[in-house]
Design brief:
Homodimer. It comes from Maribacter caenipelagi. Pfam families: HGTP_anticodon, tRNA-synt_His. Its EC number is 6.1.1.21. The protein has 459 residues and is an alpha+beta fold. Among the domains are: 211 residues, Bira Bifunctional Protein, Domain 2 (BirA Bifunctional Protein, domain 2, 2-Layer Sandwich), CATH 3.30.930.10; 90 residues, Rossmann fold. The protein has 18 helices and 16 strands. Strand 12, helix 15 and strand 13 form a beta-alpha-beta unit. Helix 8 packs antiparallel against helix 13.
């Protein structure tokens, strides 16, 4: 008995309707990327392991899919290492490549390798799949697309302002009103860690703080204690666990908390500039707010951090995120190249649009016209008409065989075809064709010598 086929957990097949909806999102994001002056690049689906490992923090590294070396890879592991059964020492012997975890680190590698070909500041966009060995759940997959826009070669905060505007433009065009763009600054987090005496535990502090909305205040404190952060330090950071209030209230609270930290005050200054500039320019549909618990959990951020939440009432994780990284290319030998970027979470945006019924009604209309097949002579006339319609940009087809009328009409209904064309023996004699409007149930006759009349009606 043949084995029932399956696909790996966290991956999906997509039917034509789903592809049409995904392309709708892709097209809007891509069009806005181009409007803002970003240029497209692509990088390989897998990278050398040393390109990726160590760039995402301990948790990120655990989620990287490693690719086994080809051939008899086990024979290259000596008996002592194999007997030890330590994956950390065996892994480098049996795997040298890994599926990309995101598009940012491969982009940094790309910039370093192609630096002499690029004009700086270089604005790039990239829309490709990434892979993470995460636990699958709603809105979280092991294979998913990221849609990134980054600028490297400029430390101007106007880039952050522009990326916030880009988020707003895309979500407004998707009619996703009320999205919340949450913003923080890594310098603020570093300043807080400094003033509470946990400067050496910055990564542990921010990773735990970033989980506040998932595990709550008690969970965060417990994790911080487990990482060696003292109870006294956690108590000093307690204002971060309070209801956050509006932007002005949070800035006032942070002013008091960071008065003795130069780095923290620098982060506050950057935050204020971005907030004030956006307030002057205005946003169409999104809301920009400070979230001091936002850390993003990625080691390479050094300045502004962004995360986008869906409108209130929609239960979904972040649908976008990003931030400033002052020296990401430095890990590949190119120092002092600042960059900032954002990402759109396509798969989660899809689920939100579906939940809110925001996809256009006719988005999955893959066929506009279907010609019924009545037989050999009639089919020839229908084929000629279909050719004319296709040349005019109409999605048209003919049913391939002269099956029963009921079967052909059912096919048209299943394909959500708005117009069905009938060319029978009578129509051949009169050199005409009949168009049935499937939605209204009405019929109208047109001359085969004046197909333009039907095209005008379709418009």
């Amino acid at each position: 008995m043949a084995q029932k086929p399956s696909i790996p957990k966290g991956t999906r097949d997509f039917n034509p309707s789903e592809i049409a909806k995904r392309n709708y999102i892709f097209d809007i994001i891509k069009r806005n990327f181009q409007t803002y002056g970003f240029q497209p690049i692509e990088t390989p689906s897998f990278e050398n392991s040393d390109t990726l490992l160590g760039k995402y923090g301990e948790e990120g590294d655990r989620l990287i899919f490693k690719i086994l070396n080809s051939g008899d890879f086990i024979s290259k592991v000596d008996d002592a290492t194999y007997a030890d059964k330590n994956s950390a020492t065996i892994a480098p012997r049996i795997t040298e490549k890994a599926l990309r975890y995101d598009l940012t680190v491969p982009f940094a590698r790309y910039v370093v390798m192609h630096q002499n070909e690029l004009d700086f500041p270089f604005k790039r966009y990239q829309i490709q799949p990434v892979w993470r060995a995460d636990r699958p759940q709603k809105g979280r997959f092991r294979e998913f697309f990221q849609c990134d826009a980054d600028v490297v070669g400029s430390d101007s905060l106007l880039q952050e302002v522009e990326l916030i505007q880009l988020y707003d433009a895309v979500f407004s065009e998707l009619k996703l009103d009320g999205t919340r763009i949450k913003m923080n600054n890594r310098k603020i987090l570093a300043g807080i860690a400094e003033v509470i005496g946990a400067k050496d535990l910055l990564i542990d502090f921010t990773v735990a703080l970033d989980k506040l909305d998932k595990i709550g205040e008690d969970g965060v404190k417990k994790e911080m204690l487990a990482k060696g952060i003292s109870e006294e330090a956690i108590e000093q950071a307690s204002p971060l666990f309070l209801p956050q209030g509006n932007n002005d209230e949070q800035l006032e609270r942070l002013d008091a908390l960071l008065k003795d930290s130069e780095e923290g005050k620098k982060g506050l200054e950057e935050l204020r500039f971005i907030l004030n500039t956006i307030a002057t320019l205005g946003l169409e549909s999104a809301n920009l707010s400070i979230d001091v618990t936002l850390a993003r959990g990625l080691n390479y951020y050094t300045g502004a951090i962004f995360e986008v939440a869906a409108p209130k009432g929609v239960k979904m994780g972040s649908i976008g995120g990003g931030g400033r990284y002052d020296d990401l290319t430095g890990i590949f030998g190119l120092k002092d190249v600042s960059g900032v970027g954002i990402s759109f979470g396509l798969d989660r945006i899809y689920l939100v649009l579906e939940d809110l019924n925001l996809f256009p009604e006719a988005i999955d209309q893959s066929l506009q016209v279907l010609c019924v097949n009545f037989g050999e002579k009639e089919a020839m006339a229908a084929l000629k008409l279909v050719s004319q319609l296709r040349k005019s940009g109409v999605k048209a087809d003919i049913y391939p065989s002269s099956a029963k009328m009921q079967k052909q009409m059912k096919y048209a209904n299943n394909r959500n075809v708005p117009y069905v064309i009938l060319i029978g023996e009578q129509e051949l004699d009169k050199n005409t064709f009949v168009v049935k409007n499937m939605k209204e149930g009405s019929q109208k006759e047109y001359s085969l010598s004046k197909v333009s009349d039907f095209l005008e009606h379709m418009r």
